[in-house]
Design goal:
- The chain is α/β, with parallel strands linked by helices.
- The chain has two domains: 5-114 and 305-324, 2-Layer Sandwich (Nucleotidyltransferase, domain 5), CATH 3.30.420; 127-302, 2-Layer Sandwich (Nucleotidyltransferase, domain 5).
- 41% of the residues lie in helices and 22% in strands.
- The protein is built from eleven helices and 13 strands.
- It has helices spanning 41-58, 97-105, 114-125, 185-189, 191-203, 209-217, 222-230, 234-258, 274-287, 290-293, 307-320; strands at residues 5-11, 15-21, 27-34, 66-73, 76-78, 83-87, 92-95, 109-113, 134-139, 143-149, 152-153, 262-266, 297-300.
- Strands 3-2-1-4-8 form a five-stranded mixed β-sheet, with helices on both faces.
- α8 crosses α9 (274-287).
- The protein is globular and about 65 Å long.
Length: 325
């Protein structure tokens, strides 16, 4: 009989990642699929079932070897009942995900917010391994966050803690955010914000690398802005510096409240490397008290797009295995 293991699922608005994870947090096998958002909730459940069966066949496993399944979802949740209260990007409202999956698989299922799951994955077997107090930011289309205190996610009164993307960083003239407010961190310092800044600049320029890229491709991506900044484009470099500074200042404010050992920066935008991290860390050090700065390190996350499924598996590990080790 094979060693007991977990299944971790990272459900996103674009893709589904599913993995078989051992009791040390190592990913043994993975599968991926586009998320059929338009097909609806029941179709996603059916796809989960197909992927799980494929994963078991691929790894030569049976359900009797699976301790449970963890699922990370981009949503507001009723954590006790495992109900997805609101998942805007999926079009799900008040769906009993835990109950439906447990009926489907007859193993325990735990549902968690996707950004929280990513933070747990990094703590278990990533860049945050060994830390008990950490903040994990995911920088992408938006900005997600997970706060870990004493080795576990801090959920707050109703599961809404860690929504760092909606911390207000600009009080006058801020850009509109999807939440309906203006000046949120997500609106000012995400990959989406970089694209909007670059488009505004490109349309007003007569020459330059950014203008050439815009005219050649007809659009701009955050990745292309980073690449042009690396090539020496001063406009793109300043856009990245501005974003890094906003992030660094916001993280400094978080540290006064939470005093973490480590801050992890993940998501696609974290791949920018030094060109983003240097102004971010400089702004953080300029803003935060030395006593706080000397005890807090800021580093890239390690697990990439596997952090979420790893953290989802950790939820089962914590509840059903950890006390036995």
């Amino acid at each position: 009989m094979k060693p007991l293991a977990y299944i971790g699922i990272d459900l996103g608005g674009t893709s589904i990642k599913m993995g078989l994870v051992d009791q040390l947090g190592n990913i043994l096998y993975t599968l991926g699929s586009p998320t059929p958002v338009k097909a609806g909730y029941q179709h996603v459940l059916a796809l989960f079932s197909q992927m799980a069966e494929q994963l078991l066949r691929k790894s030569d496993n049976e359900w009797e070897n699976i301790i449970g399944v963890g699922v990370g979802v981009p949503a507001f949740l009723d954590l006790q009942k495992g109900i997805v209260v609101e998942a805007v990007n999926l079009g799900w409202y008040h769906v009993p995900l835990k109950e439906d999956l447990e009926r489907l698989w007859t193993v325990p299922v735990i549902v968690e917010n996707d950004a929280n799951a990513a933070a747990l994955g990094e703590m278990w077997n990533g860049a945050g391994k060994g830390a008990s107090h950490l903040i994990c930011l995911t920088l992408g289309t938006g900005i997600g966050g997970g706060v870990i205190i004493n080795g576990d996610i801090y959920h707050g009164a109703n599961g809404s803690a860690g929504e760092v993307g909606h911390i207000k960083v600009k009080h006058h003239g801020g850009r509109s955010c999807n939440c309906g407010r203006k000046g949120c961190l997500e609106a000012e310092a995400s990959a989406t914000a970089i694209v909007l800044d670059a488009l505004e600049q490109a349309k007003g320029m007569s020459t330059g690398l950014l203008k050439e890229e815009y005219e050649r491709s007809g659009t701009i991506t955050a990745k292309s802005v980073v690449q042009l900044a690396r090539q020496g484009d001063l406009v793109c470099k300043q856009i990245i510096i501005n974003v890094g500074s906003v992030l660094g200042n916001a993280l400094a404010q978080m540290c006064y409240l939470l005093n973490p050992e480590i801050i992890l920066i993940g998501g696609g935008l974290s791949q920018a490397g030094k060109i983003l991290f240097d102004p971010l860390i400089q702004a953080f050090n300029n803003e935060v008290l030395p006593r706080v700065a000397e005890n807090t390190s800021i580093v890239p996350a390690k697990l990439g797009n596997q952090a979420g499924l790893t953290g989802a598996a950790w939820l089962i590990h914590r509840k059903y295995t950890l006390h036995l080790l």
